[in-house]
Design brief:
Length: 418
Amino acid sequence: MVITDAVAVLVEPGVETSGDLEVPGGADSDGQRLDASGCVVTPGLVNAHHHLLQSAFRTLPGTRGVPMSHWLPTMAAAYTEAGVDPELAGLAATVGVAEGLLNGVTTVADHHLTWPAGADTVGIATAVADAALALGGRLVFVRGAARDDPQEAAASAEAIVSALAARTLDGMLQLAVGPAGVHSDSRETFELLGEVAARHGLRRRTQSNEQVDVAIALEKYGRRPLDLLEEWGWLAPDVTLAHLCDVTPDEIARLAAAGVTATHAPGCDVPMGWGIAPVAALREAGIPVGLGTSGGGSNDAGHLLADARLALQVSALVGPQLPARDVLAMATRGSAQGLGRDDLGHLGAGSSGDLCVWDVSGVADAGVADPIAGLLWASPGRRPRHVVVGGRVVVRDYALVDADERELAARLRERVGR
């Protein structure tokens, strides 16, 4: 495939070329051309932290402007009423992945935390994977845990690996494990899921140092979350920590020394009142930082570029303002680093060929001096004209290639009664 007549092509963060770009691999790599006149081409965005199930539970009454102690039971009651099963998980994932693709997200990490007693856990994981792959999106499925029985969580993770490992070979599906955090899960859960990860070479992910996480850890253990994670073996190069709103300079130094990666999620953290991660300080310490939206229960949009814009805007409240190109790098290469994926988040040598074509020729971009920075600063709610995953066109002229988004929305509405 060849992208033609682009204004600029961002091959690596801060490195531009212009003109034609040939995309390697994929079913559409037979000389097909995409018109990118008046457009900027970037790597596909990588959403490093989502809860796709929550795409079925957005703006629920009682979930906005409330403390976590109220938010959790409200969400749990909605899950119970709807009945979380493979069908619902698949429908929610279809909507979430489709929304992401339409907004330029070519890879999404789904931290799935809701496992009702007796649930078909393999069926849920398979349904989510099927939903993503049918639309042409890449998925990282994280077998999470939130107050689950540790032994059952580990057994479920093993079963999911056994069922889906063969489907991970082409890079479209990746598996990982991750408790919700020390505020909800025991040392045994962290250790047993860590053992699963070690046996199968999986990445580990968890949430840490939101304000509520710190408060509960201090109340329950008399210690801060990172102290517990270090003791439990979860400060290591294969671990990514989401949120990190409340971290001290000493803790940042410890994270850097441990080789962990981080995920910034301002679209969740700001409305939930959890604070703002000191991204500039994390990056200055050498910690790779990615970007995630988190779920629909806290951030009702899966629009990663909008959250990148928010990250720009709020960064000045906790340090120097982040440059737009740095934040775009977080949403691409930074997130990919946290997934251990050197093939994602860039368009240089070794790339898997995931890209977005953004039209910057309209009035919303008129007067913009730097079209790369303008992707974030200008035109809130911007969507890409075309999206390519692995050389395959999955969004063309702002529409899904393999599905009707209104039909997907109608199917989910019918299932949840909204």
